[in-house]
Amino acid sequence: MKNLNNKNILVGITGSIAAYKAAQLVSSLKNNGANVKVIMTRASTSFITERTLESISNNKVLVDESETEESFLHLEVAKWADIILVAPCTANSLNKITKGLGDDLLSTTCLAFKRKIFIAPAMNPDMWNNTIVQDNLKNISVDKFVIIGPDYGNHACGDVGYGRMSSPDLIIETLSKAMGKGILDGIKILITAGPTREPIDPVRFISNYSSGKMGYAIAEYARDLGGDVRLITGPVKLALPEAIPTKAVETSSEMLDEVLDSVSDCDIFISAAAISDYKPSDTSVEKHKSSDGDLNIKLVRGEDILKTAKLKNKNVFAVGFSAETKNIEENAKAKLVSKKIDMIIANEANHQKGLGFESDYNQIVIINESETTTIPRNSKKELAKIIIHKIVSIYKKNLLKIKNA
Ligand SMILES: Cc1cc2nc3c(=O)[nH]c(=O)nc-3n(C[C@H](O)[C@H](O)[C@H](O)COP(=O)(O)O)c2cc1C
Question: DSSP assignment, residue 60?
């Protein structure tokens, strides 16, 4: 489920016989890309061990005693979480949490939490059907609580009826639906990132300092917003992004082939790769012998991938990057016009200032035909968010214009 990717989910586990199912639940949430922290009530620790959940969640499990080590822990975790899920939730915790009582770490965290709380009850059918439980449920705020299940079936005590915790799959599907559609849902986005390498001979090449960080950050954020993202990457030292189909290439010709293969099927093309403008006219099959004399290599103009892709696919919203060392805005505007693209993101490439290539930071100017927006120095991850939101707003405005034309 894409919309759980990178979401911070706090799982509260309470003292039910169904607590063992929490291990599978936490594991599935992790597999869906969520960051998971667990709070266990005191009663739950006799049903499943902290160590199990610590290993599966990859985070220290929080219990009532953790609060004394770290003051205001309940406030901190409540701020960290995007979602609180209490599963399994006992009758005791259900009544406590929905009534706003706070006498342990889980219930006080729920009290401090500002968003919706998801509860998957698990209890004996007689407990579930108890009028106190049912009357309480009738009066809870639907803006605050989502009750998932419980299911009908056999119970460990031998009784049959409603009260079984819903399956981890159903719980995860409910969370995912509740997170809503991402703003890029159904939108196909092709992104290129990193440098290209243009071989001189079998051991030498022409390349540049591009790290791929900006393109990767854009791809990951677009994915998190529900985009159908594909990435074409030059050689970089970054880990491949999760849940994004990625094609690795080396040369600008390979990148061109891959882009032309995919771009016609896309809505948005973001060319964040630093493609060599020039490449050797010939690649020597043998290594150039080193000698005392000079070596002349003729460089020829490489393909303009962005321009070619846009020319062949006029309906695709095309975004380019322009790394400049001077006259940044002016040069970028000239490229926007000459390449006939929809948006260009200009940045200063300056090692001394720790900007652009290789750095985790950048400062950019976003330019389209009607607007120029300067974004001061920020991390590439934050800039990726700003860039994507800008692209989406202009892309959607353009779509509206076409529709109304
Ligand atoms: C073997 C056993 C199984 C239990 N299973 C459940 C259960 O499935 N649901 C429930 O509401 N309470 C169940 N309880 C009772 C709770 O553990 C008890 O109410 C406890 O105080 C709940 O605390 P908590 O809500 O803080 O976790 C069970 C108790 C025992 C001894």
Answer: P
Distance CA 320, CA 398 (A): 17
pTM of the model: 0.61
For the ranges 146-155, 157-166, 228-237, the one whose mean pLDDT is highest: 228-237
Active site residue 89: no
Could you tell me if 263 and 315 are in contact, meaning their C-beta atoms sit under 8 angstroms apart? no
Q: Domains of the chain, with CATH numbers?
A: 2-178 (3.40.50.1950), 188-278+299-404 (3.40.50.10300)
Q: Which of 11, 13, 17, 128 to mutate to test the pocket of ligand 1 (most atoms within 8 A of CB)?
A: 17
Asked if 268 contacts 231 with a C-beta cutoff of 8 angstroms, the reply is no
CA distance 119 to 86: 5
Name the residue of 44, 48, 92 to mutate for ligand 1: max ligand atoms within 8 A of Cβ.
Answer: 92
Return the amino acid letter for 395: Y
**CA of 90 relative to ligand 1 center, distance in Å:** 6
Q: State the distance from the centre of ligand 1 to the C-alpha of 93, rounded, in angstroms.
A: 9
How does residue 121 score in pLDDT terms, banded at 50, 70 and 90? very high
Ligand 1, residue 14: give the atom nearest the CA.
27
* Strand 372-379 to 343-348 pairing: unpaired
In this model, does residue 191 exceed pLDDT 60? yes
State the chain's maximal CA–CA distance in angstroms: 95
Ligand 1 atom 19: residue of nearest CA:
92
Q: Residues enclosing ligand 1, CB less than 6 A?
A: 14-18, 41, 43-44, 90-93, 122-123, 127
- Could you give the CA distance from residue 377 to residue 183 in angstroms, rounded to a whole number? 26
Specify the 3-state DSSP secondary structure of 285: coil
CA pseudo-torsion sign 342, 348, 354, 358: positive
